[in-house]
Amino acid sequence: MIGNFNLNSLPNLSSSDKSWPWIDSNSTLPATMPDGSSWPRISIVTPSYNQAQFLEETIRSVLMQGYPNLEYIIIDGGSTDGSVEIIKRYSPYLSYWHSRKDDGQSDAINQGLCMATGDIVAWINSDDTYLPEVFERIATLFNRKNVELVYGRSFFIDEESKIIGDYPAGPLQLDWRRFRYWRGWPVPQPTVFMRRGILEKFGYLDTSLHYGLDYDLFIRFSCHLIKFDFLDTPLANYRIHSHSKTGDWAKTQDLFYRETMRVNQRYAPWFLPENWRLWVEWFIQVSIRFSKKVLHPLVKWWKNDRIFKTH
Fold this sequence. Notes:
single chain; 311 residues; alpha/beta; Spore Coat Polysaccharide Biosynthesis Protein SpsA, Chain A; 2 domains; globular
């Protein structure tokens, strides 16, 4: 566990940037909460693999929270791009880290979550970042309310950490409409914080999934009637870049949809009458996408071919 430490003792900056999280815009929190109680332990897991370009910014966005009862775990999959050297520089401020081959992102996250001892847990990928004062806000919320899982708004940022848009977050509808992934998923993963107990009770990430791993986990929670509390304020930055899963959406969209369809088949099977409306809408969406990808090019080719023959 990381106790109180002087934020100024962190390693020398490798960036000349003067914005969060490269400079201290948030002082260390007092030893206890305003009511005199202890801060709940927050455990953060970062899965890492060859993203040295962004990793230090992620690490600092966790440590610069100045949170007194933080447990920070980094699970690196055997990076060869300088990530390990960055992790070593910050190792005095980490609760645990290792660098060795794993079975992918979900396996790395699960390893960290299984080690976590905090009542509140979360994971932040090695290219995303938290915004300032988030841990204080989350701890206060969990302390005041009977909260099981909370999430908030998120910004999209680019490779230079510039804001390029808002993630379309919002309240999660807990009926059949939550399965309509083609309309967008309203729960930005980097903003999610949850009780460790619900993971222990309902299971961790499905390691067979590469694209729909968080979708599967949160749908599973919703099927067990876990309450999703939406905090209508930005909590994190979701980075879009050329090497991210969503960086080239035109290429990865089908892979995302294939996995999320598997998840829907698991939790909302088509043969149950209450799910028929969902699958009718899904069939319409698939037909529209098929038409755009296959039929439209064929019609265009046929028209061009006819024009060519008439000349």
